[in-house]
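As promised in the previous annual report, we have extended the structural survey to additional targets. Below is the entry for peptidylprolyl isomerase.
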Amino acid sequence: MMLLAKLGAPSVPGKRRVEEDAISCRIETYHGCVMDRRKLLLVPAISMAIASFQYTFVKGIAKAEFADMPALRGKDYGKTKMRYPDYTETESGLQYKDYFHGKIQDLRVGDGPSPKKGETVVVDWDGYTIGYYGRIFEARNKTKGGSFEGGDKDFFKFKVGSGQVIPAFEEAISGMAPGGVRRIIVPPDLGYPDNDYNKLGPKPTTFSGQRALDFVLRNQGLIDKTLLFDIELLKIIPNQ
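The corresponding structure token record, generated without further manual editing, is:
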């Protein structure tokens, strides 16, 4: 009967036509009909999921903080600033962690009072362009001064509160004690002013280090200028 209807049986108007269409759907294309209905049922759910994702995505962008990239300044998108759950973040945006030999379980926070404004500190440090391939621009624990032993001749020194170093370095040192080692994540606004390492310390001591840092700082493209420093506070020299 179904075959005859398809080959030219007279059409049945109204309710009968609807019933025949329903029967045809159930008998001949049952699985197809079921799939079509399932697809139809999925449409509202998919639409809701997409809408929810779009809302969450846009909401996340609105709240995101982006790393400084000259090519994207003034825009509401870019590479988000790095956040590390095992680091302490200060109000300024500096992230730091005290450690010893890279082992979190063996913290090395130093011993004694922290340096005061006007005192001179002696530090050893290393630096990395963590936002751009993690290139090292200064190595810590490298040979200092040939046969010179037991002193601070070739270590980096500066007076606390004098404005001689980048804000992140100053903030990190002010909370350390002698013998302590601190790792800091430095966003661009706490780093080198005007992207020039010659204006404030610490400055790389080798030509290759200066070139690596300068490439990142002066690049006007899509380069994240976030830096990483390891700082060891060796000594505090009291005011004279």
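Helices lie at 2-7, 14-28, 30-63, 167-174, 207-218. Strands lie at 88-89, 95-98, 120-129, 135-138, 156-159, 181-186, 227-237. These points will be discussed at the next consortium meeting with the crystallography subgroup.
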